[in-house]
Amino acid sequence: MNIRSIFGFMSNELAIDLGTANTLVYAKNRGIVVSEPSIVAINDVTTKVEAVGKEAKEMLGRTPGHITAIRPMKDGVIADFEITEKMLAYFIQKANNRRVWIAPRIIIGIPSEITQVEKRAVRDSALRAKASEVFLVDQAMAAAIGAGLPITEPSGNMVVDIGGGTTDVAVISMAGIVYSSSVRVAGNEMDEAIIKYLRKKYNLLIGERTAEQVKMEIGSAYPLDKPVTMEIKGRNLIEGIPKTLVVSDEEIREALEETVSILISAVRVALERTPPELSADIVDRGIVLTGGGALLKNLDKRLREETGLPVSMGEDPLSSVVLGTGRMLEDVDLLRKVCLD
Predict the structure, then answer these.
(1) For a tag on the chain, would you pick the N or C end, based on fewer CB atoms within 10 A?
(2) Cα three-residue angle 185-18-38, rounded to 5 degrees
(3) What's the CATH number of domain 13-142+320-340, 2.60.40.1080, 3.40.50.300, 3.40.50.450, 3.30.420.40?
(4) pLDDT of 4-27, one tens digit each?
(5) pTM of this prediction?
(6) Which of 67, 12, 19 has its CA nearest to residue 41?
């Protein structure tokens, strides 16, 4: 790939973490300029975009019949090509304060195990959203850089990036990925698990936003020091009327158990497949967690218990991928080393 005149004067450069749950945009020399949900509200009658990002999220589950709130990304990949393009175009414009004199060069983080077709879809969407050039980088690599790991050294670094749609597990050494895997289980699966659990146990139907709130407030992967409860409002499926229910952290932990177990087994497999020399480094340095899903209470404790390794949280877990991708805007050599074809 030609990374020519890479990022010359006057060029307009952006790094994008195109996530299933949230999209973050980093502008060179300005830092993170956009951090919004990856949601688009479409008017079915006029096919016009009514709202994008935060405004569209407010509409989730509350729109009139002719307006649909859509998440165009599913499991870290593009599920709706046209809407992703509109969403990207909106965020690119927003990042440039609505002024686009020069088509921006863009670096985008993608999950490690997506297919060539899915890669092309990301690249094409960005080009059609008026990017001049698009560089793709591995999300786990970007997360490791964003979390401040010394990825260019000849030693093993293990990063677990838990996003909205995918969890990427990678072992990195000398700016290369020694082992990586991507499981399509992450934050959104946790929300789904909470919805299913409450429907099955209490015949209570709740929406996506409520499930996310429950996860953030009382969700955990390991018993909390002090039990907590939360009041939840939903609809009783038998009587069909609104109902309020109090649930405990223990119940939500039970709801999340299956999802958490899948994440832990992905980490175990990565540890089993890591070359012995690098395993020794990981024993010393431990595992670094990044991504919004890493904020699940006591997930680090649970991983520590299951693997016997030190586990730490990246500095700014929600922004690790975009900060790492942003670093590549500033450091051309680094981009050259980690850019995917």
Answers:
(1) C
(2) 80
(3) 3.30.420.40
(4) 444 443 357 899 998 888 999 999
(5) 0.88
(6) 67
